[in-house]
Write a structure and sequence with these properties.
It is a single chain. The chain has 408 residues and is mostly helical. It has one domain. Helix content is 76%, strand content 0%. The longest helix has 31 residues.
């Protein structure tokens, strides 16, 4: 197959490094204890391992089989992932504007929505080279992941942090934390679906399977290191007597408390740059940038605005129902998980006709029933929905093979 210019490793890595990762990592630690960051990192590695098995077993990349692709399923999965990331970045940007500029919560988020909408329309108008956008996001993310833990522990003291945890917060260090395994499985299902969404939106001629999987392996190393670094900050925040109005503010408030005004300002500006660099291009978060390949179709304004509108709706939903970002992440995973399994099944198992939207829909329905009748937690709902979709996918495959044998 004649391939075009391959996707750069900077693009592959930067897609997964978004500013709100510091909030997600911190909340995982708050809920699951000291091993929360390790569990979240493990979910990413398991997701990568599953993707590797798919490609290793079949010896092909999904993009090279365009006839077998289900466009509706791809669009739904990609849109859900974009909306998820845009929602997270809106929350982070509004939070920072609220703390740095001392605006009210309402004013901060209105300003965030207006600024991100203006940047998005400007990016759609002038069509900049998003390679620089990706590079800036990658560099700033790595700087923060390296600098913040060192700065935090130098300010507080490692011995002080351990002493406070041991005497005042022993549950954080407890080895038998409840909920680790369900979260590990649920996180794997969600991140696997996100990886599928990313691969589905790559231009066919820009994909080289071996190099792409190597780039994703490097991404897993960097992403895991960033998650562990940001999680360590949350561990310090637990030992301080900080009372956030919003659960995800804890790490940000810690930096504000232990830093001088110039340091906190620089930290906030770096996070805002990462956040707005993503918000200015939600239509490009999953796929490549326009002009990268002749196979990238031109996007109309509605397609560009749709992730932003979904993110704005997600932002309002979070504050109306008093959800945290991890709640939103898990709830989105209830239908992202079966969608990811279904899309991969259409490519490798079911042939050109696919298995129908009834497979992911059934998974979501079974998860809702498990919650109503079996009091399943949100993590368990993700497992139920994804597992049900996988079972029906395999059953459909077996029945299809049986029918072909009968015809022969």
């Amino acid at each position: 197959m004649n391939r075009g210019k391959p996707v750069s490793v900077v693009h592959v890595i930067s897609v997964w490094l978004y500013g709100s990762l510091i909030l997600i990592s911190g909340e995982t630690t708050l809920r699951l204890g000291a091993f929360g960051g390790a569990v979240l990192s493990g979910s990413f590695w398991l997701s990568y391992f599953l993707m590797f098995l798919w490609f290793w077993k079949k010896g092909e990349f999904p993009i090279v089989n365009p006839r077998k692709r289900d466009r509706m399923g791809e669009k739904l999965l990609a849109l859900s992932y974009r909306v998820e990331i845009v929602t997270f970045e809106l929350v982070l940007a509004g939070m920072l504007l609220h703390l740095v500029l001392n605006l009210s919560v309402f004013q901060a988020y209105v300003l965030t929505l207006l600024a991100s909408l203006a940047l998005l329309l400007l990016a759609f108008r002038i069509q900049p080279d998003f390679r620089w956008n990706n590079l800036v996001r990658l560099v700033l993310s790595l700087i923060l992941a390296f600098f913040l833990p060192i700065y935090t522990y130098l300010q507080i003291g490692l011995e002080t942090v351990y002493h406070n945890l041991l005497h005042y917060h022993p549950k954080v260090l407890h080895l038998e934390q409840s909920g680790l395994l369900p979260f590990l499985i649920a996180g794997t299902c969600i991140l696997f679906a996100n990886m599928v969404a990313y691969f589905m939106n790559q231009p066919a001629r820009s994909v080289d399977p071996p190099s792409f999987l190597r780039d994703l392996c490097l991404t897993a190393v960097i992403w895991s290191a960033a998650v562990m670094a940001f999680s360590s900050i949350a561990i310090v925040a637990i030992t301080e007597k900080i009372e956030p109005s919003f659960l995800n503010e804890l790490s940000i408030l810690l930096m504000k408390e232990i830093s001088s005004s110039p340091v906190f300002f620089i930290f906030s500006v770096m996070l805002l740059l990462i956040s707005f660099s993503s918000l200015s291009a939600p239509a490009f978060l999953v796929g490549g940038w326009r002009g990268h390949s002749k196979e990238v179709q031109k996007l109309n304004l509605f397609e560009v605005l749709l992730p932003f509108l979904g993110g704005a709706a997600g932002l309002m939903t979070i504050f109306y129902f008093h959800w945290s970002l991890l709640d939103f992440f898990i709830l989105f995973g209830i239908f992202q998980g079966p969608l990811g399994v279904w899309n991969m099944g259409n490519l490798f198992l079911l042939g050109e006709k696919g298995g129908g939207m009834w497979i992911p829909a059934t998974g979501v329905f079974v998860a809702i029933l498990a919650h109503i009748f079996a009091s399943a937690s949100r993590d368990e709902m993700v497992i139920w929905s994804t597992g049900t979709a996988l079972v029906f996918l395999l059953v459909t495959r077996v029945l299809g093979s049986f029918k072909r044998v009968i015809k022969v």
